[in-house]
Amino acid sequence: MGDINMTNAAAAATMDQQLQYDHSLDVKPPQQGGSKSFDDDGRLKRTGTVWTATSHIITAVIGSGVLSLAWAIAQLGWILGPAVMLVFAFVIYYTSCLLSDCYRTGDQITGTRNYTYMDAVSTNLGGSKVKLCGLIQYINLFGVGIGYTIAASISMMAVERSNCFHASHNDNPCLTSSTPYMIIFGVLQIIFSQIPDFDRISWLSKVAAVMSFTYSGIGMGLGIAKVAENGKFKGSLTGISIGKVTQAQKIWRKSQALGNIAFAYSYSMILIEIQDTLKAPPSEATTMRKASLFSVSTTTIFYMLCGCMGYAAFGDMAPGNLLTGFGFYNPYWLVDIANVAIVIHLVGGYQVYCQPLFAFIEKCAATKWPKSDFVNKNFQVAFLPGCRPYNLNLFRVVWRTLFVVLTTLISMLLPFFNDLIGIIGAFSFWPLTVYFPVEMYISQKKIPKWSSKWLCLQLLSAICLVISIAATAGSVAGVVADLKVYHPFKSNY
């Protein structure tokens, strides 16, 4: 990703002018003003609303990360765990509001649009920060693809083992490998990755959002039932006890828990891309702030309930994946439904995160090879009689397929769910969620240096940087420990 070409605002503007048309959407060149069919920038009329944006965000946020929250709270304890979740929720919402104002440069109704996160950074900050932003953003999106592949395979394995245990009446150890399930998930993603662009997957986001509520609700319900069965709330005020882990392990785990919570809330890196699907008026920033408020509030309630009830049910033994912690208790079919819902959700979530990366690579390729038929030409392919032909682009097919194959292969080699999502969350939290939104806001609003507001924003950024460093260190330590005992491509359970 070191060959990112957008080094300043002028370069980004030039690239956008060259690429105003989109072959998959048959978008016309820019024109003055809007119309019934086209927006003020000449692109097809955007139709997104606060509810479609909310569904996109919920699909991105209430993902596999929710399943690790019981484990995260178990490391932090009853006091620090919920408090950290609330702090993350506030920070995410606040910085998302700052970032939403960066979609347009100048007036929020008529100003120039920034179509991607990188465009916003290029316009407001420019220079080497554009390359740095792109590198971090797209590495993170790549990592999310890996994390989602691992999470989906774990859920598919859980369904197989559950049915195996009940068929054998617990006489069979039912050992299985995650590799075949990662391949299955990869094949599904190769198919869905051929959806041309982000705006065409709103239906998939809505289905995924419903699935996220389904499995989160089941996990929460099972946690409540388990607490009722135990007759008490397990856990302690300070988290997992010394003895079950060493003092050093406890410190590393607390750090890793911060990364897991950061991952569970992360969506800033695709906020601008989601905002670019919204219709106006009202201004896209106004709609996005409402969508962020609805989404963050909803997810925080779910997170608190799922994480806290999971910790109350299992205490220090809270599993890395909440649903696997219920083992194969009856009603096992309910756990199966939850795991199937996870898989369906992750199919959509994978696309919500990866479509911006797909679009960026294809945009760069079209700029570098503008006369290449392999990169730019669409072929009309009719798969079903009576249905609208599909615009087949050879570069899109090859590049996106290779991307999915690579994420699947890495997932097979490093199937460490908690540790990996901790690294992903920690790596992206400070720069994408805090640093760039804060710096762009300061630049856009021309906040004086050393003013009280400037100092408060810089203090927020510095605190979040420390949290990201600690979380990254803890997660890396977890991966190193896992690698000492892991054997690739063998039975995991």
From TrEMBL:
Keyword Nuclease: no
Transmembrane regions listed in the UniProt entry: 50-73, 79-99, 138-159, 179-195, 293-312, 332-353, 397-417, 423-442, 454-481
Presence of keyword Transport: yes
GO MF: symporter activity
Domain of life: Eukaryota
GO biological process, one term: amino acid transport
Keywords in alphabetical order: Amino-acid transport, Cell membrane, Membrane, Symport, Transmembrane, Transmembrane helix, Transport
Family: Belongs to the amino acid/polyamine transporter 2 family. Amino acid/auxin permease (AAAP) (TC 2.A.18.2) subfamily.
PANTHER family: OS05G0424000 PROTEIN-RELATED
Protein name stated in the entry: Amino acid transporter transmembrane domain-containing protein
